[in-house]
Amino acid sequence: MPRQCDICQRARAIIRRPKTGQRICKECFFHVFETEVHHTIVDGRLFSPGDRVGIGASGGKDSTVLAYVMKTLNERYSYGLELFLLSVDEGIAGYRDDSLETVKRNKEQYGLPLMIVSYEQLYGWSMDSIVEAVGRKNNCTFCGVFRRQALDRGALMLDLDHIVTGHNADDVAETILMNLLRGDIPRLGRCTEITTAGDGYMGRSKPFKYAYEKEIVMYAYLKRLDYFSTECTYSPNAYRGYARQFLKDLESVRPSAIIDIIHSGEAIKVSEEVQAQKPSSCERCGYISSNAVCKACALLEGLERGIPKLGISRSAKHFERQAVEPVHFERLREKAHEMRRRRMCGDSNPCTTTSCDDSCHGTTCACTTDDDGAGGCH
Ligand SMILES: [Zn+2]
Ligand SMILES: [Zn+2]
């Protein structure tokens, strides 16, 4: 005999909810999943009405579900947000190019403006060329540092107030474990925060902080959302891989392990002495940094110094890179405004529209319609 839903007691239960073990129907699952995210948003006071919020969109399951749920909740509860999809093109053939196609479809499906910023454009290096130069080992370090800045710069170009990312409860629990195992106490103190803001960084938050990965996959599947499921073709972060496996083992014997770890992490008070020092700005690119030169600029310098040895000549490209201009982070916002104005007037400047699919051939940008700077060349 089919079992009834534990919540509504009417419909047939079709799933067993990973987070609670309840057997529930499809509609009740959608409802509880969405409502929990809504509570996370409201309790964490993530946004204010009128905010321009960028959804870090990779085309993967987490960010695709996030885009869908953010749009749904924004309409259902009248958050009054202006939502944008913001994607980073790391330049990984056979992986990111395909996943960006998914994001472009999501743009149409959800009716949200999309901006794509690329490593090639911002740094003069794609991940493919970085891996060619440094090999497969450690390339995730470059990617992580570059992605963070790329998202911030994209957010400035779109004049956003906030970025949301698809990090889920599993990711947060993994990060807590990793920081604990490495003894990285300042990061351990920060990694449980739902919002990171201030000190010059673009504010970021994780509306899926308490959402289980399994439930996100289930939601995407049951809603038949269009997402890209291939893993990055370059070597994954090995250490995170161990933490992930360990967490999965724990979860299999105790499903609440994920939430328990997050709650433990939240309860840990990090003493003031070990908290990171106040950051200032990078003297080369103006990005926020606790050292004179930010991590991205330091990595780029290493890459460039390695060129002669590796016999890869890309010197001409480096002068085009936006990141080498010494400009203070505060100025970046003004610059972004300037860029938007220039794009809107249809001036014959080199195209700076990152979402442009190159149909303008990098010469004249004819964007005259988009006052949000997100539409790109048409
Ligand atoms: Zn039900
Ligand atoms: Zn820098």
From TrEMBL:
The keyword Cell inner membrane does not apply. SUPFAM superfamilies: Adenine nucleotide alpha hydrolases-like. ATP binds at residues 56-58, 62, 88, 166, 171. Residues 281-310 form the Cytoplasmic tRNA 2-thiolation protein 1 C-terminal domain. InterPro entries: CTU1-like_ATP-bd, CTU1_C, Ncs6/Tuc1/Ctu1, Rossmann-like_a/b/a_fold, TilS/TtcA_N, tRNA_thiolation_TtcA_Ctu1, UPF0021_CS. Signal peptide: none annotated. Pathway: tRNA modification; 5-methoxycarbonylmethyl-2-thiouridine-tRNA biosynthesis. It is found in: Cytoplasm. GO terms for molecular function: ATP binding; nucleotidyltransferase activity; tRNA binding. GO terms for biological process: protein urmylation; tRNA wobble position uridine thiolation. Its main location: cytoplasm. It is an enzyme of class 2 (transferase). One of its GO terms (cellular component) is cytosolic tRNA wobble base thiouridylase complex. Residues 53-244 form the tRNA(Ile)-lysidine/2-thiocytidine synthase N-terminal domain. Its EC number is 2.7.7.-. The keyword Nucleotide-binding applies. It comes from the Eukaryota. It holds the Pfam family ATP_bind_3. Keywords: ATP-binding, Cytoplasm, Nucleotide-binding, RNA-binding, Transferase, tRNA processing, tRNA-binding. Plays a central role in 2-thiolation of mcm(5)S(2)U at tRNA wobble positions of tRNA(Lys), tRNA(Glu) and tRNA(Gln). Directly binds tRNAs and probably acts by catalyzing adenylation of tRNAs, an intermediate required for 2-thiolation. It is unclear whether it acts as a sulfurtransferase that transfers sulfur from thiocarboxylated URM1 onto the uridine of tRNAs at wobble position. Prior mcm(5) tRNA modification by the elongator complex is required for 2-thiolation. May also be involved in protein urmylation. PANTHER family: ATPASES OF THE PP SUPERFAMILY-RELATED, CYTOPLASMIC TRNA 2-THIOLATION PROTEIN 1. Belongs to the TtcA family. CTU1/NCS6/ATPBD3 subfamily. NCBIfam families: TIGR00269 family protein. This is Cytoplasmic tRNA 2-thiolation protein 1.
